[in-house]
């Protein structure tokens, strides 16, 4: 049945995906139970997780899931709403296209005419959204919401006269409510607020500290399974997820000095296959053997350790495994060594302390040494780690996430990371045009030699297809009450815009496009309220219950959906190949959008 | 609504009532298919990139690498579930219903031949062994005939029951002769078997 047009094929596919996530959608949505062949089970309501767990070989379905995943990586939320909006837009476009096929060109069949009309409509929709949507939102939606200031983390920090009770914690609470339900959302949102208030950099934009936390989140948290969720807490200092390789410091001499090693102290002069010629080099000696060679090596090692001792170093943080000789000498010299520290943690450590890791072991200078307030082992769950803060202006703190099982700790960690991304999107200033294409540097935290002056490097996110926005219309921190209010308000704003367009000049195109978008938006509140059977709840109650959501995240969601619609409708034919073009399970961040399109396009 | 490339000025007319109904039915069917497919996907089936040759629905593949078309294999045979002509379970429950109706003090009327029995739950009060799951046509033949609840059934009731069963047997035989589908033939054969069993039990009871 290759005669199915792409519009119809996408409609069927997205309809199926919609049926998959529909029952989990909304505040009353259910959870999906995931089971593995090993018997591990996990409950989740996250749309991204559900969609990425499905086994899909259909290229259009995979394209859609790819879009959802990318959107979710950028904004942290909204994957189910994405699918719902996508489905309703495709339905309306299909209906509109079958009503009035574009007869200005001659096509071979109704199908081709419909497909062309649909494509044209999708292009118009996207163009309209890029041009006018932000203004419409600013005038029609934002006045009904509010603005959270970055300083208002909890409700207690505000003056009690504020009726709206807007604060970051409330926003986070409603976010976690969609992920975890009522049980733990209060606790986790409180914990998240604490973490963020610790990591607030003075005199910096909120987006800066949020970006920092988001980039370094793997190094900033420790998952511990086997404890109840309420045991999660913040602890002082950075946790290095490795135990001491040598016996830890016996006495707490404060302050503790440490160095960061990126290579083995004992240089590997000999590799497999090398031939060592043991000779005398001109001097006549009776015996020269490998024993002398290793003795010489040890002496040079002793020299290095003695150098470190004179600098007062007690702790060696090594990125690689050190040899037994190094460990023995370090123990003798009463130094403790931590080996195989992960790159993330080392780079965070280096960044926070402002030190330079040692590269050449023969040249160890005082600037390589960093002073720590304390350095001690800490037992978290079944593992022993090392806890060490630095003496800098921002006191570092690390998050310990506890949950009954490993799957749950991962879930909570993911949810927290997504929450930070969502907040980042909320507070990101949507600036005016940038001359160069500034892409998001995903690898910025991987570089091991980040100095303090690099902390001012701002990373901004831009979708590669968005045209530059000329004025800063949407202020950072705009929120609106959750539960479909954004969609309803935008629906009315679009209808009004359509009316005013048709009255002022006959641009029927704009009217029909804004009408289509307005009707599509209604599907979201429809689905939210179709689930909840309680019709007798007073409006005041429901407003308090549903919480807040971020306006800029919703705006990004709309744009992403419209782009996805356009990409889906651009597909002419789907060609089956018998070679696997890319593996199913890997979703690398560097997969460019063009790859998937090339696979599916004519 | 044929549109050729030559027709430049195509007048769109709103669809008629009949067409609207067709469109509506098609949409509902599509929604049903989507819902079923969604459920299967959540169960672990794989969505393939191919479509069914018969109906054009996207194919699913289960863990055993077997392809499955939701609309052909499930939706179309769904409505046949309650049809007593094809399903012996439905036939049996219809017979029981008729027995119940004739045994009650209120004047009972013979139920229609194609009245679909609501389900076996209606016969909860009557203590009869009943298969809980519809294991297919073959199982229907193995169902033991429910013993009559009334201690002394009257001749009239037995005769009526016998007549009904014979009618069904006759009808099934006719259907079998003209049947082309393997599935339907199997089901009809088992219906005949169960009718024969019912007749035997009725004869035993009457003696």
TrEMBL record, chain A:
What's the name of the protein?
Bardet-Biedl syndrome 10
Originating organism: Amphilophus citrinellus
Which top-rank group of organisms is this from? Answer: Eukaryota
Q: Which GO terms describe its molecular function?
A: ATP binding; ATP-dependent protein folding chaperone
One BP annotation, GO: chaperone-mediated protein complex assembly
Family from the record: Belongs to the TCP-1 chaperonin family.
* Keywords, comma-separated and alphabetical: ATP-binding, Chaperone, Nucleotide-binding
The record's listing under InterPro entries reads: BBS10, Chaperone_TCP-1, Cpn60/GroEL/TCP-1, GroEL-like_apical_dom_sf, GROEL-like_equatorial_sf, TCP-1-like_intermed_sf
TrEMBL record, chain B:
Q: Which Pfam families match?
A: Auto_anti-p27 (PF06677)
According to the record, the residues making up region (Disordered) are 91-153
Compositional bias (Polar residues) at which positions? 100-126
Q: Which domain of life is it from?
A: Eukaryota
PANTHER family per UniProt = PROTEIN ZNRD2 (PTHR16537:SF1), SJOEGREN SYNDROME/SCLERODERMA AUTOANTIGEN 1 (PTHR16537)
Q: What is the protein's name according to its record? A: Zinc ribbon domain containing 2
Q: What is the lineage of its organism?
A: Eukaryota, Metazoa, Chordata, Craniata, Vertebrata
